[in-house]
Amino acid sequence: MTAERKSALTLKSTDEYLAERPDGALGWGPLTEGILLRRYKRFLADVELPGGRVITAHTPNTGRMLGCSEPGRPVWLSRHDQPGRKYPFSLEMISMPEALVGVNTAVPNRLAAFCARRGLIEELPRPAVVETEVKSGDSRLDLKITPERGPRIFVEIKNCTLVENGTAFFPDAVTARGLKHLQELAVLAAGEARAVIFILAQRGDALRFSPADHIDPAWGQALRRVVGAGVELLVYQAELTLEAIRLGRRLPAVL
Predict the structure, then answer these.
(1) Do 216 and 130 belong to one domain?
(2) What are the distances in angstroms from CA 31 to CA 24, 50, 91, 93, 130?
């Protein structure tokens, strides 16, 4: 690591985290670079910072992070100094040989809502109102979009970090909650609303998407069933840099 790069690192919290930019991206703000030592107990990771200090960071990802939690890889952390927070650092990205990978599952929600409000998702009309974390039936869905004209649109967003031979797979662990979301979207699609499952591949080496039948066949079967019943599947690739994240190209889905 160069001396210039070391001097650019910061350990302070920032209000610039995921700041909305006029170019359609969300800016990370200052990030702290380190080396991943291990990820454990699902939500924790030990990271060595420049100079040898080892800290424990929060890992905001409920999945197994298959293929993107290799010890010894460079990682980037955000810092948040809210009172009472036990672990100020959060793991945001890991550098794998093929691409940067965004591991924070909350980031796709922020990016999709930001893009929906600005009409940056081609398949979704510019809305009058975008609501987040909306209760629907026995579930809570990520977005409800109310356009100026046309039906309401309910969107459930999924973060995808597993890529094998160019195919992005979701989920990377069995997800009963994800299955429940698909079932609720099917109910909505059968009514007067549009229902969308929106999958964001937070890595640049994905060429296509398929459900991870080898990990959770029930979810894959349910996805095919609800898409056949009118639920819309949108898969996009995120463009990740150390400065910002933005919505990239739409990926083809192979069901």
Answers:
(1) yes
(2) 20, 13, 10, 10, 29
